[in-house]
Write a structure and sequence with these properties.
heterodimer; A: mainly beta; seven-stranded mixed beta sheet; four-stranded antiparallel beta sheet; B: about 120 residues; mainly beta; six-stranded mixed beta sheet; 12 strands
């Protein structure tokens, strides 16, 4: 099973709201990723967690706050967003250094959360 | 600096005809090369990957890709296109090794298959 789930599917929020995006995988993967994707553009990496520790932050504004409560869950907390933050937010996971070397570096993506900031 | 190029914004092909979506890369070291497909309002789906060995890689839904080291290319192919193949295709590269691998994506190619 190569499934990554994301909730909610759609989210509309005002610039003063606080909301969270949730991502879950049960593949035993040890690396998890957040991406932001604008329409018809490639995904842009935001954060990487490896073994539940933040390993990469691609200079993302502090209004985005990631959290990895355990190896299966990844959250993205949102606060005081701007309209230009409206996008599809994708979560992905990969096996990390464990498992079949043929598969371990493949990232599997969730369906995304479509975020609209008013 | 590592980069991936997809020279065509859009590829149009008639159903039943062969299709090719082009990708070239520029990396130092040994790359892992990927193709992903994205249907409207969906996440990216993994199609296939090259890490080493046979230059022809077979993937999901009848797609295959040919790795050419001398031309630094990794073109996606399918012998007979289906209307349902219409989607946005991304080529990506990562460098081997490490617990996490940053993917460098191309700009994407929109494949339109006409009935």
């Amino acid at each position: 099973d190569t499934e990554v789930t994301q909730t909610p599917k759609h989210l509309v929020m005002g610039m003063t709201n606080k909301k969270s995006l949730k991502c879950e995988q049960h593949m035993g993967h040890r690396a998890m990723y957040w991406y932001k994707q604008k329409a018809k553009k490639p995904p842009e990496l935001m954060f990487v967690y490896s073994y539940e520790k933040l390993s990469i932050n691609e200079s993302v504004p502090s209004r985005f706050s990631p959290e990895c409560p355990n190896s299966s869950l990844l959250n993205l907390h949102l606060h005081a967003l701007q309209p230009e933050d409206s996008a599809l937010y994708l979560c992905a996971s990969s096996a990390g250094t464990s498992g079949d070397p043929i598969l371990r570096d493949t990232q599997y993506f969730g369906p995304g959360t479509r975020l609209t900031v008013l | 600096a590592q980069s991936v190029a997809q020279p065509e914004d859009q590829v149009n092909v008639a159903e039943g005809n062969p299709l090719t979506v082009k990708c070239t890369y520029s990396v130092s070291g040994n790359p892992y090369l990927f193709w992903y497909v994205q249907y409207p309002n969906r996440g990216l789906q993994f199609l296939l990957k090259y890490i080493t060995g046979d230059n022809l890689v077979k993937g999901s839904y009848g797609f295959e890709a040919e790795f050419n080291k001398s031309q630094t290319s990794f073109h996606l192919k399918k012998p007979s296109a289906l209307v349902s193949d219409s989607a946005l295709y991304f080529c990506a590269v990562s460098l081997a090794g490490g617990a996490t691998n940053k993917l460098i994506f191309g700009t994407g190619t929109l494949l339109a298959v006409q009935p």
